Amino acid sequence: MTSTPTQAPLRILGIESSCDDTSAALVHLNGFEGKIISQSIIGQNDLHAGFGGVVPEIAARAHAQRLDLAVEQAKINLDEVDLIAVTTGPGLIGGLNAANAFARALSSARKIPLIGVNHLAGHALTPCLSDGLEPPFLMLLVSGGHCQFLAVEDYNHFTRMGSTIDDSPGEAFDKIAKILGLGYPGGPLIESEAKTGDATRFKLPRPLMDREGYDFSFSGLKTATRRIVDEFITKGGMTLQDRADICASFQFAVADVIAQKSERAMRAFIETHQNAPSNFAVAGGVAANQTIRKELESKLLPLGATLTAPPLSLCTDNAAMIAYAGGVKFQQIGINPDELLTRSRWPLDINATPLFGYGKRGAKA
Ligand code: KG4
Ligand code: ZN
Known about the structure:
12 strands; binds zinc ion; five-stranded mixed beta sheet; alpha/beta; binds 5'-O-[(R)-(carboxyoxy)(hydroxy)phosphoryl]adenosine; 20% strand; globular
């Protein structure tokens, strides 16, 4: 059960730079109720598009150049800030270091307390900020950098139920889009291609479905799709319809695996949280995909579960979620100086088995 914070309302400046978005936000927190006063997000898709994925060195330099701009664009008056919350992991270390140096300087110059925030906690608590959802609930985080089921037991207590053992779904979308020459980021491009495609034409594997538990694997699915593309190339090329059919079949395979595993995880969550409402929430860029959302609904609603999907601007990386997570942590636990050290790997659930999936977008745990 949740505890009640006793402290006064807080005005929090959030700073996020763990992957390829430089973001600053001002969030007001009253109890567990958060209100976004302003936010700016400076993306980097244009800088990485030519590479088909995020290049850590390019990302780090861009963050260092744009952090002050992000705060300026969000029109944040530092005299009205009670707490600075900065992401210190997990993520790409260059970007994390840039924001950490920036936040430390602001904190020291303006005498504002500084708290280090786990990026995954930000994502996991987003439905609390956007929709007022209260723990406990089951969260599926699916993005370019992450893929895991987190049981959000309380605002600062998370249990990881499962995770990817290799790639994230976003990486798989991006890779397939790159192979098909569609561009970057791949998810929305594949989704749009798939609209005119036949999802039943190509039989693709459903990795790890025959294994118990809630872990995912996407690398086999990626390889199987690549093989289909290679066969077309060997035979002289593909038509636009072939390409659309590949996109639709791939997208449906991802959606099917995600939805089936979610049903399995939700059943287990309901079993272990019998006195709580059956709430399921999703976040991360991949959660924008309409086929995935539809498949999730079809598997979760029959269980009597609700499905909360925050608006897309809060599903992807943003500083408002970091401000919120930093605020509730400050109120419930306080500042831990060790958590101001940046780290590429920082599991939310330290009791969960370590995972070694490590793609272009950084650590998955
Ligand atoms: O959450 P996000 O913005 O950043 C990371 O933490 O990575 O997620 C970006 C990822 C990219 O891999 C992108 O291809 C994927 O989310 N994505 C999608 C869609 N929109 C973005 N994947 C599938 N369908 C979409 N509509
Ligand atoms: Zn993220």
